[in-house]
Please model this.
Amino acid sequence: MSALLKALLPTHTALLDAMQGNALGELQDRIILFQRRNFPNQPLAGKLEHLRREVHELQENPRDLSEWADVFILLLGSAAKAGIAAPELIALAHEKMDINDARKWGPADAAGVHHHL
Model:
């Protein structure tokens, strides 16, 4: 959570972080069990390739909510295979957002992507 949001919601920050981490952790646990049961020998590279393909499908149809869910599921499953638990992933995302907040960003390129300077 950003420093701004923490400042705005000081009494709820810990509760929200705990609830989000718990719900995300429970989902990641469910994904891990599903993947172990159905794809017991799939390497991380295979999971990441599947994630890449689902992102491509999402790009083709960004209004399809099931594609968003597919990408989210595969991201959490891939992270788990890499040894990254949901609470750690949340902490890493917050750290990265702190870095991004401090960066200067350039104009969008031809594809609409902004890069840090």
Summary: The chain has a mean pLDDT of 88. The two ends are 24 Å apart (CA to CA). The helical segments are 3-8, 13-38, 44-60, 65-81, 86-102. The CA atoms of residues 48 and 73 lie 12 Å apart.
